[in-house]
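Still learning. Show one?

>
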Amino acid sequence: IKKEKLNITFTGRILKDKGIIELIEAVKLLHGKFKNEIILNIYGKIDKNNPAYISEKKIHELLIPGFIIWHGFTNSIKEILIHSDIYCLPSYREGIPKSIVEAMAIGRPIVTTNAPGCNDTVENEINGFKVSIEDTIGLSKKLQLLIENESLRIEMGKKSRKLFEKNFTLERVLNQTLEIYEKVMLFS
């Protein structure tokens, strides 16, 4: 069964430094060519306690009905990612972004930035693409590459899953944590 539209997904708080404005602008650049073929689904809450928050009024001004949709907060991340084709987090900075790790676990190609944290999840041109922070044009081009090339999306998604299994499973993270503790104990 062929899906009606290719689904690009963002999950995270609606903050300027998550790159949400750049993502929306990048997808708008694709509107003329792909308006009936893709949809950007944005999931996340507005965090008014964060100085980088974007107002509900502003986010609504940026949306395009049927093309760029903000769904607000959800607890159904796994379900959302299962129905996603491309995951995008163009953040300015992160720790290790849980949202990207979740998308990798589901086996999705990732488009993100060279930002600290994001850098540690994506191997450029292997399981996705990295662009410079605030690079709307670069973001749009990498999304277009994945939109137009289904086999590339599938291959990068498979590689995301393999990288997740190699680097981010609970067992792997616990082993790395124990190794750090052992090194600290040796030097104290």
